[in-house]
Amino acid sequence: MKKLVFLFLSLLTAGSLFQACDNSKTYAEMLEDEKNAVNKFIKDNDIRVISLEEFERDTITASKEAGNGYDEYVAFSNGVYMQIVDRGGKEKDKDGVEFINKVDTFANNNVICARYLEKNIASNELTCFNVVLPEYINASDYYRSPLTFRYVNENSSAYGIVLSTPLDYDYLWTANSYGTAIPGGWLLALPYLRDNAHVRLIIPSKMGHSISQQNVIPYYYDIWKFEKAKS
Questions:
Q1: Mind listing the pLDDT tens digit for each residue in 41-57?
Q2: Share of residues in the chain with pLDDT > 70 (%)
Q3: Which one of 90, 95, 135, 203 is most buried, counting C-beta atoms within 10 A?
Q4: End-to-end CA distance of the chain
Q5: What does the pLDDT look like over 182-193, one tens digit per residue?
Q6: Burial of 203 (0-12, 13-18, 19+ CB in 10 A)
Q7: Per-residue pLDDT tens for 140-177?
Q8: Which residues contact 208 (CB under 8 A, 6 or more apart)?
Q9: pLDDT value at position 66?
Q10: Cβ neighbours, 10 Å, residue 35
Q11: Residue 100 CA to chain centroid, in angstroms?
Q12: How would residue 96 be classed by pLDDT, with cut points 50, 70 and 90?
Protein backbone atom coordinates (compact mmCIF):
# COMPACT_ATOMS: atom_id res chain seq x y z
CA MET A 1 0.00 0.00 0.00
CA LYS A 2 2.83 2.38 0.90
CA LYS A 3 4.46 1.64 -2.46
CA LEU A 4 1.24 2.49 -4.27
CA VAL A 5 0.91 5.77 -2.36
CA PHE A 6 4.54 6.64 -3.10
CA LEU A 7 4.05 5.83 -6.79
CA PHE A 8 0.92 7.99 -6.93
CA LEU A 9 2.69 10.93 -5.29
CA SER A 10 5.66 10.53 -7.63
CA LEU A 11 3.42 10.58 -10.68
CA LEU A 12 1.52 13.60 -9.33
CA THR A 13 4.77 15.50 -8.74
CA ALA A 14 6.10 14.61 -12.17
CA GLY A 15 2.83 15.69 -13.76
CA SER A 16 2.96 19.02 -11.95
CA LEU A 17 6.53 19.62 -13.07
CA PHE A 18 5.66 18.73 -16.65
CA GLN A 19 2.70 21.11 -16.60
CA ALA A 20 4.83 23.90 -15.15
CA CYS A 21 7.47 23.38 -17.83
CA ASP A 22 4.81 23.14 -20.51
CA ASN A 23 3.30 26.48 -19.43
CA SER A 24 6.64 28.31 -19.37
CA LYS A 25 7.83 30.25 -22.40
CA THR A 26 11.19 30.55 -24.01
CA TYR A 27 12.80 33.96 -24.38
CA ALA A 28 12.12 33.80 -28.12
CA GLU A 29 8.42 33.19 -27.45
CA MET A 30 8.31 36.09 -25.00
CA LEU A 31 9.90 38.36 -27.62
CA GLU A 32 7.26 37.24 -30.12
CA ASP A 33 4.50 38.05 -27.62
CA GLU A 34 6.10 41.46 -27.07
CA LYS A 35 6.20 42.15 -30.81
CA ASN A 36 2.55 41.15 -31.18
CA ALA A 37 1.53 43.38 -28.24
CA VAL A 38 3.32 46.39 -29.76
CA ASN A 39 1.75 45.79 -33.18
CA LYS A 40 -1.69 45.53 -31.59
CA PHE A 41 -1.10 48.78 -29.65
CA ILE A 42 -0.13 50.57 -32.85
CA LYS A 43 -3.20 49.25 -34.66
CA ASP A 44 -5.64 49.92 -31.81
CA ASN A 45 -4.43 53.51 -31.48
CA ASP A 46 -4.49 54.15 -35.24
CA ILE A 47 -0.83 55.16 -35.26
CA ARG A 48 0.81 55.87 -38.60
CA VAL A 49 4.40 54.64 -38.71
CA ILE A 50 7.07 56.36 -40.82
CA SER A 51 10.63 55.33 -41.55
CA LEU A 52 13.70 56.97 -40.07
CA GLU A 53 14.68 58.14 -43.56
CA GLU A 54 11.34 59.88 -43.99
CA PHE A 55 11.52 61.37 -40.50
CA GLU A 56 14.99 62.82 -40.96
CA ARG A 57 13.88 64.94 -43.90
CA ASP A 58 12.28 67.38 -41.48
CA THR A 59 12.39 65.57 -38.07
CA ILE A 60 8.68 66.25 -37.61
CA THR A 61 5.98 63.77 -36.60
CA ALA A 62 2.32 64.64 -37.06
CA SER A 63 0.08 64.73 -33.99
CA LYS A 64 -3.56 65.35 -33.19
CA GLU A 65 -2.47 68.22 -30.92
CA ALA A 66 -1.05 69.97 -34.00
CA GLY A 67 -4.36 69.58 -35.82
CA ASN A 68 -3.27 66.77 -38.13
CA GLY A 69 -6.13 64.50 -37.12
CA TYR A 70 -3.81 61.52 -36.59
CA ASP A 71 -0.70 60.47 -34.69
CA GLU A 72 2.53 59.64 -36.47
CA TYR A 73 5.51 57.80 -34.99
CA VAL A 74 8.95 57.18 -36.44
CA ALA A 75 10.24 53.61 -36.20
CA PHE A 76 13.87 53.02 -35.19
CA SER A 77 15.77 49.84 -36.03
CA ASN A 78 16.01 48.84 -32.33
CA GLY A 79 12.22 48.65 -31.98
CA VAL A 80 11.63 52.08 -30.44
CA TYR A 81 8.82 54.26 -31.86
CA MET A 82 8.83 58.03 -31.22
CA GLN A 83 6.37 60.87 -31.68
CA ILE A 84 7.55 64.44 -31.06
CA VAL A 85 4.52 66.39 -29.89
CA ASP A 86 6.46 69.54 -29.00
CA ARG A 87 10.20 69.80 -29.67
CA GLY A 88 10.62 72.44 -26.95
CA GLY A 89 12.98 75.38 -26.82
CA LYS A 90 10.22 77.98 -26.57
CA GLU A 91 11.19 81.18 -24.77
CA LYS A 92 9.99 84.78 -24.48
CA ASP A 93 12.00 87.90 -25.15
CA LYS A 94 11.98 91.03 -22.98
CA ASP A 95 8.77 92.17 -24.66
CA GLY A 96 7.02 88.89 -23.93
CA VAL A 97 7.12 87.71 -27.55
CA GLU A 98 7.63 83.96 -27.86
CA PHE A 99 10.50 82.62 -29.95
CA ILE A 100 12.27 79.30 -30.47
CA ASN A 101 15.74 78.89 -29.02
CA LYS A 102 17.09 76.32 -31.48
CA VAL A 103 20.36 75.86 -29.60
CA ASP A 104 18.69 75.03 -26.28
CA THR A 105 19.37 71.30 -26.73
CA PHE A 106 20.26 68.66 -24.16
CA ALA A 107 23.99 68.25 -23.72
CA ASN A 108 26.48 66.12 -21.83
CA ASN A 109 26.21 66.41 -18.04
CA ASN A 110 22.82 68.16 -18.10
CA VAL A 111 20.54 67.34 -15.16
CA ILE A 112 17.09 66.66 -16.63
CA CYS A 113 13.69 66.46 -14.94
CA ALA A 114 11.04 64.24 -16.52
CA ARG A 115 7.29 64.35 -16.02
CA TYR A 116 5.65 61.30 -17.58
CA LEU A 117 3.17 58.47 -17.42
CA GLU A 118 3.97 54.86 -18.25
CA LYS A 119 1.68 52.06 -19.45
CA ASN A 120 2.33 48.35 -19.78
CA ILE A 121 1.53 47.76 -23.45
CA ALA A 122 0.79 44.06 -22.96
CA SER A 123 -1.80 44.62 -20.22
CA ASN A 124 -2.75 48.24 -21.01
CA GLU A 125 -2.28 49.08 -17.32
CA LEU A 126 -1.01 52.39 -15.96
CA THR A 127 2.12 51.30 -14.10
CA CYS A 128 4.06 54.43 -13.19
CA PHE A 129 3.62 58.21 -13.35
CA ASN A 130 4.59 61.48 -11.69
CA VAL A 131 2.01 63.82 -13.24
CA VAL A 132 -1.31 64.94 -11.77
CA LEU A 133 -4.10 62.60 -12.87
CA PRO A 134 -7.71 63.19 -11.75
CA GLU A 135 -8.18 59.68 -10.36
CA TYR A 136 -5.05 60.03 -8.21
CA ILE A 137 -5.46 63.65 -7.16
CA ASN A 138 -5.30 62.71 -3.46
CA ALA A 139 -2.10 60.65 -3.84
CA SER A 140 0.27 63.61 -3.77
CA ASP A 141 3.35 61.44 -3.13
CA TYR A 142 2.91 59.99 -6.62
CA TYR A 143 3.47 63.32 -8.35
CA ARG A 144 5.36 65.33 -5.74
CA SER A 145 8.69 65.13 -7.58
CA PRO A 146 9.83 64.57 -11.17
CA LEU A 147 12.24 61.85 -12.15
CA THR A 148 15.60 63.63 -12.14
CA PHE A 149 18.63 62.21 -13.91
CA ARG A 150 22.06 63.17 -15.16
CA TYR A 151 22.45 62.84 -18.91
CA VAL A 152 25.90 61.65 -19.97
CA ASN A 153 26.68 61.74 -23.69
CA GLU A 154 30.33 61.48 -24.59
CA ASN A 155 32.64 59.31 -26.67
CA SER A 156 29.68 57.99 -28.71
CA SER A 157 28.13 56.60 -25.54
CA ALA A 158 25.00 57.88 -23.82
CA TYR A 159 23.40 56.92 -20.53
CA GLY A 160 21.31 58.46 -17.78
CA ILE A 161 21.72 58.10 -14.01
CA VAL A 162 18.74 58.68 -11.72
CA LEU A 163 19.45 61.25 -9.01
CA SER A 164 17.47 61.38 -5.78
CA THR A 165 17.53 62.38 -2.13
CA PRO A 166 15.36 60.98 0.69
CA LEU A 167 12.99 63.95 0.35
CA ASP A 168 13.11 64.42 -3.42
CA TYR A 169 12.55 61.33 -5.56
CA ASP A 170 10.09 59.76 -7.99
CA TYR A 171 7.91 57.74 -5.59
CA LEU A 172 6.49 55.14 -7.98
CA TRP A 173 9.71 54.69 -9.98
CA THR A 174 11.45 53.82 -6.71
CA ALA A 175 8.57 51.67 -5.42
CA ASN A 176 8.59 49.66 -8.67
CA SER A 177 12.33 48.99 -8.29
CA TYR A 178 13.14 50.34 -11.74
CA GLY A 179 16.73 51.06 -10.75
CA THR A 180 19.00 54.02 -11.45
CA ALA A 181 19.50 53.54 -15.19
CA ILE A 182 17.30 55.61 -17.52
CA PRO A 183 15.67 53.56 -20.31
CA GLY A 184 17.73 53.56 -23.48
CA GLY A 185 14.61 54.52 -25.43
CA TRP A 186 14.39 57.81 -23.53
CA LEU A 187 18.00 58.63 -24.35
CA LEU A 188 17.39 57.89 -28.02
CA ALA A 189 14.86 60.73 -28.13
CA LEU A 190 16.94 63.42 -26.42
CA PRO A 191 19.16 64.44 -29.40
CA TYR A 192 16.01 65.39 -31.34
CA LEU A 193 14.59 67.55 -28.54
CA ARG A 194 15.09 70.87 -26.79
CA ASP A 195 14.32 72.08 -23.27
CA ASN A 196 10.67 71.59 -22.20
CA ALA A 197 9.93 69.05 -24.93
CA HIS A 198 6.89 66.76 -25.06
CA VAL A 199 7.45 63.33 -26.59
CA ARG A 200 5.71 59.94 -26.74
CA LEU A 201 7.58 56.67 -26.95
CA ILE A 202 6.89 52.97 -27.47
CA ILE A 203 9.83 51.13 -25.96
CA PRO A 204 10.57 47.39 -26.24
CA SER A 205 12.09 45.56 -23.29
CA LYS A 206 15.66 45.62 -24.59
CA MET A 207 15.55 49.44 -24.57
CA GLY A 208 13.64 49.76 -21.28
CA HIS A 209 14.39 49.90 -17.56
CA SER A 210 15.52 46.90 -15.50
CA ILE A 211 12.04 45.47 -14.83
CA SER A 212 11.11 45.79 -18.50
CA GLN A 213 14.22 43.87 -19.51
CA GLN A 214 13.83 41.17 -16.88
CA ASN A 215 10.19 40.42 -17.73
CA VAL A 216 10.25 41.21 -21.46
CA ILE A 217 7.54 43.86 -21.18
CA PRO A 218 7.11 46.72 -23.68
CA TYR A 219 6.03 50.10 -22.31
CA TYR A 220 4.36 53.19 -23.69
CA TYR A 221 5.48 56.59 -22.35
CA ASP A 222 3.79 59.94 -22.65
CA ILE A 223 6.58 62.21 -21.44
CA TRP A 224 4.82 65.50 -20.84
CA LYS A 225 8.06 67.31 -20.22
CA PHE A 226 11.82 66.86 -20.50
CA GLU A 227 13.15 69.92 -18.70
CA LYS A 228 16.63 71.05 -17.71
CA ALA A 229 16.92 71.35 -13.95
CA LYS A 230 17.13 74.88 -12.69
CA SER A 231 20.53 75.63 -11.19
A1: 999 999 999 999 999 99
A2: 87
A3: 203
A4: 79
A5: 999 999 999 999
A6: buried
A7: 999 999 999 999 999 889 999 999 888 889 999 999 99
A8: 183, 184, 185, 217, 218, 219
A9: 87
A10: 13
A11: 27
A12: low
**Maximum C-alpha span of the chain:** 96
Radius of gyration of the chain (CA): 22
3-state secondary structure the chain: CHHHHHHHHHHHHHHHHHHHHHHCCCHHHHHHHHHHHHHHHHHHCCEEEECHHHHCCCCCCCCHHHCCCCEEEEECCCCCEEEEEECCCEEECCCCCEEECCCCECCCCCEEEEEEEEEECCCCEEEEECCCCHHHCCCHHHHCCCEEEEEEEECCEEEEEEECECCECCHHHHHCCCCCECCHHHHHHHHHCECCEEEEEEECHHHCCHHHHHHCCCEEEEEEEEEECCC
Q: Is residue 114 pLDDT above 80, yes or no?
A: yes
pLDDT the model gives residue 7: 36
Distances (CA, A) of 136 to 15, 56, 64, 124, 128: 45, 38, 26, 18, 12
Query: Rounded to whole angstroms, what are the CA distances from 61 to 4, 87, 123, 179, 189?
Result: 69, 10, 26, 31, 13
User: Which among 114, 117, 131 has a CA at the least distance from the CA of 195?
Assistant: 114
**Which residue type does 117 have?**
L
